[in-house]
């Protein structure tokens, strides 16, 4: 074990690749939930809001479980927690393949898969931050590109097997499970902490709540994610119901596919020139503006343009968020705890945001305008709070890399 991160070592970049796989199987599945939203709206007799709770709770648990698993990672229990998470994720997909009713799908795909996601994602993110200091944003961005790859691969796989090959829903989910298990094998072999464990210490670092930048950044990400996933969940149903696009899967593919570049390029720029928080702020404002503009898009071509631009901006925001979160502590041994706390706060936005948007759509008799305004305004509030966090951290100094 070395006292300083070794960003240039093969082992450090190997862990960036391993975290790429974790993003692929956690955020990638979450970002691709739109295909499930579309499928369940056709096969279940439930409202759009009720169906969105499946994806919303899944993402909520992905984040909120980090409060526990982050501290356990700091305490030296990374390997058993991570392995347990992989087991839960694969089990969830196989159990979902047996489900026929809403409540069964809710328990398997929301609760079980969400718990598994939380046991793998936060610990893996905390471990990567131990290996990088100089190139941390780029390393996290490279890893976060796995979310875009997963958000592209899994929906294509689901769409092809269900709608074209007529394999059926059960074997489609089992195929997902086999893919997930196979890709996790390298992680189970090579993922390991760099720092010695910190056995003692609180589950929640109360000193963080005395630091204004931490508070403002946490609230900023809450409001950003309150509206961010609206497009990922509802763009497909909007395209089908409002514009008349018969195969909205291609929109979802583009929305997630451009995220590969959206996660890597801004992270590289942040490391080399601007700093992570400085790069995140304009991307947050841009994401809000794009969702406001979505309300004026009524054509097929316009939706494809929106999917490209928003997919890039939202992906960059998703990638920079965990990178900035790992810097919100002066003590590297508490990274897991601090990251877990931020994820726990943001998790409530992921739980309620898509469901609120679905309820707004139902109350508006199927119109999306009011939900679009809610999502865009939420992201806008988050952008201003991110700006406030930057000012609290550096003052009104303009040319500072942070």
Number of helices: 17
Overall number of domains: 1
Distance between the termini: 28 Å
By secondary-structure content and strand pairing, the structural class works out as: mainly alpha
CATH superfamily: MFS general substrate transporter like domains
CATH topology: Growth Hormone, Chain: A
Percent helix, as a range, is over 70%
Computed CA radius of gyration, to the nearest angstrom:
20 Å
Largest sheet: none
Q: What's the β-strand tally?
A: 0
Task: Report the uncertain regions.
Answer: none
Approximate shape? globular
What does this structure look like?
The protein is mostly helical. The chain has a single domain (10-191, 202-394), classed as Growth Hormone, Chain: A (Up-down Bundle). It is built from 17 helices and no strands. Helix 10 runs antiparallel to helix 17 (369-394) and helix 12 packs parallel to helix 15 (300-325). The longest helix has 30 residues, at 102-131. GO terms for molecular function: transmembrane transporter activity.
């Amino acid at each position: 074990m070395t006292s300083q991160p070794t960003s240039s070592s093969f082992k450090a970049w190997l862990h960036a690749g391993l975290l790429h796989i974790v993003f692929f199987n956690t955020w990638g599945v979450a970002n691709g939930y739109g295909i499930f939203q579309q499928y369940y709206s056709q096969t279940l007799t439930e409202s759009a809001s009720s169906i969105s709770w499946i994806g919303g709770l899944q993402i909520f648990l992905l984040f909120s479980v980090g409060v526990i698993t982050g501290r356990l990672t700091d305490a030296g229990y990374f390997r058993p927690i991570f392995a347990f998470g992989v087991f839960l994720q694969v089990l969830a997909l196989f159990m979902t393949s047996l489900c026929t009713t809403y409540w069964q799908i809710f328990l398997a795909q929301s609760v079980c898969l969400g718990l598994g996601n939380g046991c793998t994602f936060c610990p893996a993110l905390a471990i990567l931050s131990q290996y990088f200091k100089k190139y941390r944003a780029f390393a996290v961005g490279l890893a976060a590109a796995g979310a875009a790859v997963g958000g592209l691969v899994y929906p294509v796989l689901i769409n092809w097997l269900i709608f074209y090959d007529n394999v059926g829903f059960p074997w489609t989910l089992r195929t997902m499970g086999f893919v997930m298990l196979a890709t996790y094998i390298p992680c189970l072999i090579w993922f390991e902490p760099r720092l010695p464990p910190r056995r003692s210490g609180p589950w929640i670092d109360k000193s963080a709540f005395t630091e204004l930048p931490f508070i403002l950044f946490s609230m900023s990400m809450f409001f950003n994610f309150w509206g961010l996933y609206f497009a990922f969940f509802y763009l497909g149903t909007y395209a089908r119901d409002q514009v008349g696009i018969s195969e909205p899967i291609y929109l979802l593919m583009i929305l997630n596919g451009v995220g590969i570049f959206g996660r890597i390029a801004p992270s590289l720029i942040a490391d080399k020139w601007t700093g992570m928080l400085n790069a995140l702020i304009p991307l947050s404002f841009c994401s809000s503006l794009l969702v406001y503009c979505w309300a004026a898009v009524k054509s097929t071509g316009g939706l494809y343009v929106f999917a490209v631009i928003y997919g890039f901006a939202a992906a960059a925001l998703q990638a920079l968020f965990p990178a900035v979160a790992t810097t919100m502590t002066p003590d590297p041994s508490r990274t897991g705890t601090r990251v877990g706390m931020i994820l726990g706060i943001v998790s409530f936005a992921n739980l309620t945001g898509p469901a609120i948007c679905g309820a707004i759509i139902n109350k508006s008799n199927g119109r999306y305008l009011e939900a679009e305004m809610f999502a865009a305004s939420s992201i806008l509030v988050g952008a201003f709070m991110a700006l406030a966090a930057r000012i609290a951290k550096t003052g009104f100094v303009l040319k500072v890399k942070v």
